[in-house]
Amino acid sequence: MTATLPEQDLERHFEHVxxxxxxxxxxxxxxxxxxxxxxxQVAQHAHSExxxxxxxxxxxxxxxxxxxxAILLAKVQDEAGxxxxxxxxxxxxxxxxxxxxxxxxxxxxxYSSIFNYPTLTFADVGVIGWLVDGAAICNQVPLCRSSYGPxxxxxxxxxxxxxxxxxxxxxxxxTMTRGTDAQRRMVQNATDRWWWPSLMMFGPPDDAxxxxxQSMAWKxxxxxxxxxRQRFVDMTAPQAEALGVTxxxxxxxxxxxxxxxxxxxxxxxxxxxxxxGHGPCNAQRLAQRRRAHEDGAWVREAAxxxxxxxxxxxxxxxxx
Length: 320
Ligand SMILES: [Fe+2]
Ligand SMILES: [Fe+2]
Known about the structure:
Blueprint: H1 7-19, H2 32-51, H3 53-57, H4 66-91, H5 97-105, H6 123-140, H7 149-177, H8 181-200, H9 212-217, H10 225-243, E1 253-255, E2 260-262, H11 268-278, H12 282-295, H13 297-317
Antiparallel strand pairs: 1-2
One fe (ii) ion binds next to α6 and α7.
Enzyme class: oxidoreductase
EC number: 1.14.13.149
GO biological process, one term: phenylacetate catabolic process
């Protein structure tokens, strides 16, 4: 019905929906910029979930007990599921999933810079759960109120699973820090390596993030990068203390006046290097993704042949 309205009425309706904190749904009219911004954000998010399986999957066969293996396997499978929900959400915006996958493996679309760092010991599995999934929760909880319906609804379930991921990481670290000196050293070493890259997960500082204002106006994004980063530091610093590990930042201290933790300067040159493809594992991650895509070709062909067969059967059965 709305399709017959003139564009300015459609635009007014769209703005009204946003103002009233209601949801934009796939069939609703939306400005091109809104659609493009969402496709870019949701695709980047989906790619991050899929590439994010790699650093930890690396440890599934070497997990130290059956219990740890089962937990890690479940977590990595969850990430695959998150990727699938998000690719489906992108499809509701008119994106083509094959096209998105090609853009990822040809390095034309990004994924989170965090997954370009290596996982050197089993303590990394714990620290990734604690810090990386912890940062993901800070980023994603507000997205449950994103103005685009399918994305917001997908995030509700994803966030529930992310909080399980954060818990399993923290629980692993609690076990390790109560263990031997060597285990405590592993946890400290992993914390030293993952702390700064975790802070970079929130993206560039607000004054270098040109798309933030528009995304906030559209309620695609609910908080700025720096606000979310601060929230993460405030949440994590007391957890580090409880674990008995030191966060590798001499400037980290409670500021009673601000009611927040102050923290040191992030190495933005490193962030740019990793985002532009020159981190320690960028080439390895993409090569692995490409290999997995090629290995899966027969599955896609079989699924397409199966669908075509059913389609033609249905066609013959149908009275039309
Ligand atoms: Fe996830
Ligand atoms: Fe996760």
